[in-house]
Amino acid sequence: MSSSRTGIGRYLRLGVNIDHVATIRNARGGRHPDPVRAAHLAADAGADGITAHLREDRRHISDEDIARLSVEIDRPLNFEMAATDEMRAIALRHRPHACCIVPERREERTTEGGLDVIGGRRTLRPLVQALRDAGIRVSLFIEPDTSQMRAAQDIGADVVEIHTGRYCDLALAGDGPGREAELARIREAAAFAHGLGLEVHAGHGLTFETVSGVAAIPEIVELNIGHFLIGEAIFSGLDSAVRRMRALMDAARRAQHAAGA
């Protein structure tokens, strides 16, 4: 795996978000299906890391899940969290490989849009510093907006994760011109962030049909994908879904590298 903070490599990492295995478990209660087992299966199928979002209302991932993931998986754990004192304390207790700070509203079904780093600078800066002081890499989930990228660099983030939700929504709606315009915006933002010395990730809503365009952006070194893969796993199995996504990402990156050679 590439660990360079600023380098552009041929290999594109895949982080698999296992939140919605826990959603299914919690619908009935008990321990099945086990998100930690899903993490192991995803890793065996080609995931380079595991992502889990511990929400304030614990609607899917639980505190016990985070504790188990922290010690039972052999891949980096990316802990998605809101910028709250409670989540900071949990992150500092478990010290995952990385924390991705995301906006969170209790009434939302899923994360809607990116962080307002500019408006939240006063709250975010000490949180970022506390996590980094503990040896945790810090990522901020933001829109493909250059002003937000500058603010992320200013408060000391290691990584920005570009929100790809709008791009995926436009693709689902069949809006070809809108989709291409949004992809160009993501491409420009990734290059800008890379130029600032930030590591660039991307995610939200990516599917087999939409991943290739984002995977071909050379500055992006990691994609985080969850809901779609867990949904596909119902029909084809998690191993098959992760392997197919991994293959599509690799093919897009090879084509990009060949075109740029």
Automatic annotation (TrEMBL):
Catalyzes the complicated ring closure reaction between the two acyclic compounds 1-deoxy-D-xylulose-5-phosphate (DXP) and 3-amino-2-oxopropyl phosphate (1-amino-acetone-3-phosphate or AAP) to form pyridoxine 5'-phosphate (PNP) and inorganic phosphate. Pathway: Cofactor biosynthesis; pyridoxine 5'-phosphate biosynthesis; pyridoxine 5'-phosphate from D-erythrose 4-phosphate: step 5/5. The active site is at H53 (proton acceptor), E80 (proton acceptor), H204 (proton donor). One of its GO terms (molecular function) is pyridoxine 5'-phosphate synthase activity. Keywords: Cytoplasm, Pyridoxine biosynthesis, Transferase. Its EC number is 2.6.99.2. It comes from Tepidamorphus gemmatus. Belongs to the PNP synthase family. Pfam families: PdxJ. The keyword Cytoplasm applies. CDD domains: PNPsynthase. GO terms for biological process: pyridoxine biosynthetic process. 1-deoxy-D-xylulose 5-phosphate binds at D19, H20, R55, H60, T110. Its main location: cytoplasm. It is found in: Cytoplasm. 3-amino-2-oxopropyl phosphate binds at N17, R28, G205, G226, H227. This is Pyridoxine 5'-phosphate synthase. Gene3D superfamilies: Aldolase class I. Homooctamer; tetramer of dimers. The record marks E161 as: Transition state stabilizer.
